Amino acid sequence: MSAYILPVLLLVLLVVCVIKRVKVYDCFLGGARDSLSLVKSVFPYIAAIFVCIEAFKASGLADMVARALQKPLSYIGIPSEIAQLMLLVPLSGNGTVALLESIIAEHGVDSYVARCAAVISGASETIFYISAVYLSACKTKKLRYAIPVSLFCTLLGTVTACALCRVM
Amino acid sequence: MNVAFTALTLVSLVILTVTAPATAFPVMIDGVRNAIVLALKLAAIYAVWLSVLQMAEATGLDKKLSRLLRPVVVRLFKKESDEAYDWISVNLAANMLGMGGVATPAGIRAMSAMERGERATDNMILLLVINATSIQLIPATVIAIRAAAGSENAASVFLPTLISTTISTASGVLLCKALSLPSNAKNKGLSSDFHAIKPSICKNHKARSLKK
User: pTM of this prediction?
Assistant: First the structure.
């Protein structure tokens, strides 16, 4: 069913375009032109973040930090297997999906840990990626309290997720 | 961002140099390769979605859709232009439906429309925090992964996900509003002659970046 939603919406839009005599071809050219300039302005930010993530993972630093975090996290009800996922979530969407799949493979899809991991992946965003890309067209450099607040609230959401998965 | 990036990369590189010096450069180049692959994917997605957005704009449909979210957006983001409100509405609506391809370009445009120089404004931070705490209503990818892994009830994560993302976003909005109060009080007298003080801000920034 849900597979029909987007194509039908697009068809409706095209029909409306025809009725209102909008130049569809020109719109497409404009969109394609904007897309390249948008990606061009976004690319340096993606490249920087990806280099950082690769080095962070390959050096084993990610594992070390995750291991160091396991104890304090267990005090607020977060299982130790989730620590690495929590580190990856604000950095990389693809990485999160990959780690979620490996957690599911290791613990079984309906286990407590795998359900926690699924809820956390579904309820969180790539904070650093978003803040770099969204501001890529701006001159704004000072983000002030944006990232600390986002990280703290994601942590709140994660604690909630782990608690909810115990009862739901 | 500069501090976080430098610190993280520096420590990682020190470890890499000690443990596996031969991999240091390939690792960084791999990072950029992944970035290029993603950028090309994004270019394709944006090309389609931006043309759809242009059509929606030309027919006036976007105005009608964003009017649904408009009352909430106007209340959350005070004193912005109509253009900013339109892009914010598109961004939030697309994110709720999990359409990152539309949400990101709309978010970038919204930020440009709200920009006021070097420092991010309270409204820009609010939009960033709302996006960064996730407002996706249906975690389609996660449910699909669980279904593919043979879960008995793949969609059972739906409610916990909705609750925890609501809590993170609501606490984010509250914190932003609380943190923006003191700076609002301070800037009230300054905002009207913003253009007059702009050069001094630039000078300050130059001095600061030289120090770094």
Answer: 0.78
